[in-house]
Amino acid sequence: MKLSQLEYVYEVSQCGSMTAAANKLFVTQPTLSQQIINLENELGVKLFVRLSRSVLLTPAGEEFLIYAKRILSDVEKLTESMADYSTLRRGKVRIGMLSTFGCFNIINKLAIFKKENPTIDTRITVDQSKHLIGMMVSHQLDVAFIMASNPLPDAPRLQLTKLFDSEIMALLPNGHPLAAKNRVTFSDLAGENIIMPSPSSTLHASIFAGFHNEGIDPVVISETSHPELFIQMVANGMGIAFASERVVAGNRHHSFLSRPLVGDLAQSIYFAVLEDTYEIPSIRRFADYIIREYTMDPGS
């Protein structure tokens, strides 16, 4: 059964004759008549009673027409809906990011995009980078802002664009002796209470490697990647934590000190999108917007 055959049955029922319907559909009368015969043979029932100058629906034809109208209406709505997406009158972008990204000005970028594209629905999921990548690969997310270091995540058809790097800082309680130093080394942190990043974060392995390379077994009192929590712990003198310079800059309202951490550590922020979803108009517009914004103003 073909969609065109449904249209033929509908128009013949409306016009009351094969000839009038053929003229309206811009096909020849023999072509239209043969298509309906083919459909009747396929169904095993007659849809029309042929009279000398007109046709009438059979009982089977009347019921067929009920379903045909519904299908043709749904197809028309589907076509209109897809046109809305292709012209960006509608759209959706499912975005993934880390909880720390409130300090990276990314939320501000999303708000501007939403204001400029009010018909595109944006949904945000917060999780760890490795989970966000998995959700992209399984098509639960369309794009994601992630932290990554070498080697980069190995995911099929994943396009990664580096937005910026952010130096890693040691966060110290006010009055801490290490505040006298311009930069803090891992050997300086021997014997200190350490607030480690969450084990699932990209920074956790790098920090532990830094201690290991100096032969230090760190005194870990907590493991968390929630800025509000570890910064409050530092501000209350409980220990020393680690965060990017952008997270530090975004939390200056808290009482703590920060010094660069020696060891060539940096968090690289990437924008990820899958090749097979990039061609969706709403996702392409969002991806192009983000890449353009950070290319034009890398420090934003």
CATH topology of the largest domain: D-Maltodextrin-Binding Protein, domain 2
CATH class of the largest domain: Alpha Beta
- Proper CATH architecture of the largest domain: 3-Layer(aba) Sandwich
Radius of gyration: 32 Å
- Average pLDDT over all residues: 88
Content of β-strand:
15-25%
Give the total of domains: 3
CATH superfamily of the largest domain: Periplasmic binding protein-like II
Report the biggest beta sheet as strand number plus sense, adding barrel if it closes. Answer: 7 strands, mixed
Order of helices and strands: HHHEEHEHEHEEEHEHEHEEHH
Estimate percent helicity: 40-55%
Q: What is the terminal separation in angstroms?
A: 57 Å
The 3D shape can be described as: rod-shaped
- Number of E-type strands: 11
Coarse structural class: alpha/beta
* Poorly predicted runs: none
Q: Number of helix segments?
A: 11
Account of the protein in words:
With 300 residues, the protein is of the alpha/beta class. Helix content is 43%, strand content 22%. It folds into 3 domains: 3-86, Winged helix-like DNA-binding domain superfamily/Winged helix DNA-binding domain (Arc Repressor Mutant, subunit A); 91-164 and 268-296, Periplasmic binding protein-like II (D-Maltodextrin-Binding Protein, domain 2), CATH 3.40.190; 166-266, D-Maltodextrin-Binding Protein, domain 2. The chain has helices spanning 3-15, 18-25, 29-43, 59-86, 106-116, 129-137, 202-213, 227-235, 245-249, 275-278, 281-296; strands at 48-50, 55-57, 91-97, 120-126, 143-148, 158-172, 193-196, 219-223, 241-244, 257-260, 266-274. Helix 7 links the parallel strand 7 (193-196) and strand 8 (219-223). Helix 2 (18-25) packs across helix 3 (29-43). The longest helix has 28 residues, at 59-86.
